[in-house]
Amino acid sequence: MPEQHVEAEVGGKKDLKHLEESLQSLWEKARRVSDTLLHAKEENNTLRASEQYLRAELERRESDLQRIRKEFLQLQSNGSDIFTKEEKEALKNKIKELIGKINSRL
Q: pTM, whole model, 2 decimals?
């Protein structure tokens, strides 16, 4: 019987050590998940701030574009053509290019 008691103690110590190792491994995984989650939240906040800035910038540029269009239409209705045909085409191309850049940033 004493041999069985010794074997039981050795087996119990092995089980306890295995349990401790499993708990330690689980704790490390939980810590990594927590760190990853915190990093993702910080990145999300940064992206949201960037999105707000870009949306405000887009609104400002759209407002400028509308103002310029109104001024252009007013000048055009007054009969004063301040741009040549080539200049008008260059301006249209520049506006399209700026709109494309704005859209690509969003």
A: 0.50
